[in-house]
Amino acid sequence: MKPEPKDFISLTKRLFIEETDHELPEHVRTRDMRYTDFKVIERGGICLIQSCKDNYLGRIVCHKSLRKEFVNSKEERIRFLREARVTAMLQHPNTIPVYDISRDSRDHYFFTMKLLHGHTLHGVFEKLKQNDKEITREFQLNRMLGAFIQIANALDYAHEHGVIHRDIKPMNIAIGAYGEVQLIDWGLAKVWHKDEKKSVIEKKGEIKSTHTDFRLTHAGQLKATPLYMSPEQVNNEANLDARSDIYSLGTVLYEILTLETMIGGTTINELMDNITGGKFLTPSERKPERVIPRALEDICLKCVETDPGHRYQTMSDLIDDIREFREESLHV
User: Where would I find the beta strands (DSSP E) of 151-294?
Assistant: First the structure.
């Protein structure tokens, strides 16, 4: 059960950018001998993710660092520090534990965290499309909605602490081997200044990108993952709030229902026009053969309203409706 506000405040506090974006002191460095046996897990758009052995603690951990193209970018270094600290400070069952943040022998930032074993939601979708029998048996709709609620809980927690994720997508939802679900990659998180009249404002400009995979987080002027961006993100609105995350989570629900991404487009600009114009088929129009429950479709469509005022206004309200649907469907 969610704690009462007075109890909640006593456990932790609202996060501010003054706490997340400051540089590490110069003397903070880790000796080369601590982390060894590196193996590449993934080369993302901006970061390199590896597994390695922490010789101090005797366990295998996840090691994240900036790719060499970005190590000298002050903007990306600050974002990287923000990701590490936001991830560490948001201590929730559905966020990943951070163990260490430091500089290596080349003076490059890195942080270590729990190494996850299992699937990303994106990987689950791909195997479901291939009719993988084991995955199809394991990930029925009720199980998927349970994972969805856990991610919504993590976002509800983050929103109450002044943090907007801004990069919700199936690739950033991890489902562990023991059923644990975690929302990862807080590299684009929005955090407010202590003076709430100021916020982190991205530079405006023409949207440009050399990427063709719209599932990847983009660097440069386009600060998000195109397929899951809210209309507010497309329009680069300074006062973007929690309802943007609600939209993006709604696109994930759409994919749960249809196994297809909600928005289409062959170019970035076409994709953005379709997002701001609300141009997409409803889940049941897109995949009539899947017999999508009307109540669940209505929840999804309320999440992805173009006008934020017509969406769910809080993550808690969305969670309540999903839980009510699950309870009613179990008694049918």
Answer: 163-164, 173-176, 181-183, 190-191
Residues 6 or more apart from 274 whose CB is under 8 A from it? 263, 264, 265, 280
Number of residues that this document lists for the chain? 332
pTM of the model: 0.86
Residue 28: count other Cβ atoms within 10 Å of its Cβ: 11
Residue with tokens 């046996």: 37
**Domains of the chain by start residue, with CATH:** 12-113 (3.30.200.20), 118-330 (1.10.510.10)
pLDDT tens-digit series, residues 240-250: 999 999 999 99
Classify residue 69 as exposed, middle or buried by CB count within 10 Å of its CB (0-12, 13-18, 19+): exposed
Q: What is the DSSP string of 114-165?
A: PPP-EEEHHHHHHHHHTT-HHHHHH--HHHHHHHHHHHHHHHHHHHHTTEE-
Q: CA 161 to CA 14: how far, in whole Å?
A: 4
Which residue has 């590196």 as its token pair? 38
Task: Name residues whose C-beta falls within 8 Å of residue 251's C-beta, 6 or more positions apart in sequence.
Answer: 169, 227, 228, 261, 262, 263, 303, 304
251 three-class SS: helix
Concatenated DSSP letters for 163-184?
A: EE-----GGGEEEETTS-EEE-
For 266-290, the pLDDT digits (tens) are: 899 999 999 999 999 999 999 999 9
How many whole angstroms separate alpha carbon 175 and alpha carbon 189?
21
